């Protein structure tokens, strides 16, 4: 498909083909939301964020937007079209017939909300009550794409009710302990139940005809089955990573760089039985380099392994957070041109370089990278 910068075309089948059009999030009005079942399970037990909620400090929001704007400008300078969401008032509470929560979250990580598969952009269910209305930040863009691209399909997964039945009560404790969390993860016992389909878009990695989906805190088996039925021409594979006590999203654990090469978090290795598809088809799975930091930034939910949350611009070029020198060195050894991007002070608003973006257009079509079943 020929790319034209002057008009919208929605087309993206994988994580590595040349990127031509992307959405970059904003930190504007981001809040630490009140406690709720999904959030309580995510916050580490020793975190200083427990019990905190409200708008984040304005100086940190300004700094986050400075870095996100800089990232957007860097991409534009490389000829990539960049769109931005329209933040809503995240101080507003969310009330439905089934739940109430005192405020919302933000719109820094569009990767959580929007899944682009080919010519379709799919709004995920979202398993956090505070993120119920987050899709509204992207609706003006979706309307514009619909008007400009006659092939574009705008889809939205069924909104879940998010009643208490969606969450396991045994996770609602401040003193579970890491050992028990690791055992529960190994047993595939997560905070979300199988009451209704739940998935976040950031739990899905795209490999052409194949979609690899993490079963964890934000995506349940019913959510994976819903994706399987929604994309009948794709092969949908469920994976899990037993070494992660807080299995939130896959993109700080399993990072495809180009056809045949994937980085895997050495603390959360893909189990041997789930590696067979990759090994049979000649893919190499290598341990990611260690993070450069021993702890996340202040008031940040994410782990230090955002070091491997990179954005691939094409099979030879990758954006890596500027301070993650060990990850950059590894990328260089793997034959990638590294573009350093300063973003660490924006991590707290929803993640790293992959999280804060959502693909609109990558060159290329739907390939079969796993022909050997």
UniProtKB/TrEMBL annotation:
Keyword list, A-Z: Kinase, Serine/threonine-protein kinase, Transferase
Listed transmembrane segments: none
The keyword Plastid appears for this protein: no
Residues of the active site: 200, 249, 355
Presence of keyword Kinase: yes
GO BP annotations, alphabetical order: creatine biosynthetic process
InterPro entries found in the cross-reference section: AmidinoTrfase (IPR033195)
GO molecular function: glycine amidinotransferase activity; protein serine/threonine kinase activity
Family membership: Belongs to the amidinotransferase family.
Protein's UniProt name: Serine/threonine protein kinase
